[in-house]
UniProtKB/TrEMBL annotation:
This is C4-dicarboxylate transporter/malic acid transport protein. It is a multi-pass membrane protein. Pfam families: SLAC1. Residues 457-480 are annotated as: Disordered. GO terms for molecular function: sulfite transmembrane transporter activity. Its main location: membrane. The lineage of its organism: Eukaryota, Viridiplantae, Chlorophyta, core chlorophytes, Chlorophyceae.
Length: 503
């Protein structure tokens, strides 16, 4: 194991270089399905909501290709096929998650109590919103009004999931999880961004609805969701900026999460453009239909609608610039880690969806402002987005086939945490130095076991290690020498273990 990997694991903090450098026995590579797992059922048990980032990213590719600024032969057919791939993957992932809930129901509490894996629940409603956008984009031109009704129904079916994520997951963060600025990452955005994505879907859907009354209900709801999603996302981005300032960049395994702040800012810009268009069109249609026809509503067409579109474009450009700053920062952050290498994990999908959103917002700005510059830039960004997706989906397919990506951090930690809690309780009751040594060994063992799980998952790395700079503040050279001054630390370990995972 290379030096950078060891430093991130935190094992050197406990004078356990020998344990960190001990690799698992190399197995002969096998191309059999799930050969990296002891049992096939383990893939269901180890399935996590982070897999839904695959459908988010793949769906965003379908949307950006379907709205590519410059038409080419086979464009809609390719985008249509990728949308179907997204739908099939989503159904498969739902079956896997349902299988875990039914066959391994005892593991679900660990998922909800894990401070990082639970955040990925937001990927489920975002995937549904992406599929709904595809219904509007690909199905309505092919199947007409029936597809519009299906998209409308899917929007309302997805709404409880969106509201549940933006309300309940943060509540769990406040009441059940333990977080610190040094362990904070852009993953905190995942539970609140579904509101922005659903708002964009509301704009896309409302502009295509025939009933202006129903369309305005969707429009108003979309505006409310966008307000909640953007304001919460902006606050989290502010905290993330502070985290970067005081504790440096995240660990290499988490560095791809630097792209996540691009998502809500670009999505808000995109949603504003779509909501501005939908609001103008549907308000004009509603007033023309439901008010006295003798009243002149031409002012809506001549004044209100153009003003709404211009305001949306101006605010969209404002937020697009903000998203561009986060994108450049993410690229620079990833560039600092390229020399040491970035291990592949599902967290790589954290760059695909934000990049797709940024690409879509860029192209939409080009159409709204009639700017060839934005259209060309959007086309270039789309090509880069597709290349990124191809690389990541191939790596995902290879590692998923072998079973290496099926690893639930909430399950790998639960056993070690229970033992650590028991040992800490014994030490608090007047245990000997052996109890302290046992705690220290369990802490080292917990970190090593996770490092030996290849590839490491973003939630795992974040929860156990935090940032590299912060890890250096907790080095202990000698367990026995530190024994007289570590009683409080031992008790804290027990409390953290019990409150974070067992309560």
């Amino acid at each position: 194991m290379d030096e950078s990997r060891t430093s991130k694991s935190g094992c050197s903090s406990y004078d356990a270089m020998d344990l960190c450098s001990t690799a698992a026995p190399k197995r002969k590579r096998s191309w059999a399905l799930l050969s990296g797992l002891p049992r096939k059922r383990e893939a269901v048990r180890q399935f996590t909501p982070s897999w839904f980032t695959v459908t988010m990213g793949t769906g965003s590719v379908a949307i950006t290709l379907g709205t590519f600024p410059y038409a080419f032969t086979g464009q809609q057919a390719i985008a249509w096929a990728i949308w179907w791939l997204t739908a099939l993957l989503f159904v498969f992932f739902c079956i896997m998650l349902l299988g875990r809930a039914v066959l391994f129901s005892s593991t679900l509490p660990h998922l909800f109590r894990h401070p990082n894996q639970s955040l990925f629940l937001g990927a489920v409603p975002m995937s549904v919103s992406t599929l709904t956008n595809g219904l509007v984009l690909f199905w309505i031109p092919r199947f007409g009004a029936a597809a519009g009704v299906a998209a409308h129904a899917m929007f309302w079916v997805n709404l409880p999931g969106v509201l549940g994520c933006i309300l309940l997951v943060p509540l769990f963060m406040f009441t059940r999880h333990e977080h610190g600025l040094h362990t904070m990452s852009a993953l905190w955005l995942l539970p609140v961004v579904p509101a922005c994505v659903a708002a964009n879907t509301a704009g896309v859907l409302a502009s295509k609805m025939a009933d202006s009354g129903h369309a305005l209900v969707v429009f108003y709801l979309g505006v409310c969701l966008l307000g909640v999603g953007f304001m919460l996302s902006h606050q989290i981005c502010t905290i993330y900026y502070s985290r970067l300032t005081f504790h440096s960049l995240p660990a290499r395994e988490l560095i791809i999460s630097s792209f996540l702040p691009v998502g809500p800012m670009a999505m808000t810009a995109w949603a504003l453009l779509n909501l501005g268009t939908a609001g103008g069109v549907q308000l004009e249609a509603y007033y023309s239909k439901h008010f006295d026809p003798t009243i002149d509503v031409q002012w809506l067409h001549d004044v209100a609608v153009p003003m709404a579109a211009a305001a949306a474009a101006g605010l969209g450009l404002f937020l697009w610039g903000y998203a561009t700053w986060w994108l450049l920062l993410a690229l620079a952050s990833v560039g600092t880690c390229l020399r040491k290498g970035i291990p592949f994990n599902l967290g790589w999908w954290g760059a695909i969806f934000p990049m797709g959103v940024y690409t879509g917002a860029t192209a939409q700005l080009g159409h709204a402002a009639h700017s060839n510059t934005f259209l060309v830039f959007g086309a270039i960004a789309t090509c880069a987005h597709v290349v990124m997706w191809l690389v990541v989906i191939v790596l995902t397919a290879v590692n998923a086939w072998s079973g290496r990506l099926f690893h639930a951090p909430c399950l790998s930690q639960s056993g070690a945490v229970q033992q650590a809690a028991a040992a800490a309780a014994a030490a608090a009751d007047g245990g000997t130095a052996a109890a302290a040594a046992q705690i220290e060994l369990l802490r080292v063992k917990s970190g090593v076991e996770e490092q030996l799980q290849q590839p490491a998952t973003p939630g795992d790395v974040l929860h156990k290690h935090g940032s590299g700079r912060h890890a250096g503040h907790h080095q202990h050279d000698d367990v026995a020498a530190a024994r007289p001054c570590c009683e409080d630390e031992e008790a804290a370990i027990g409390r953290n273990a019990i409150s974070g995972f067992l309560v």
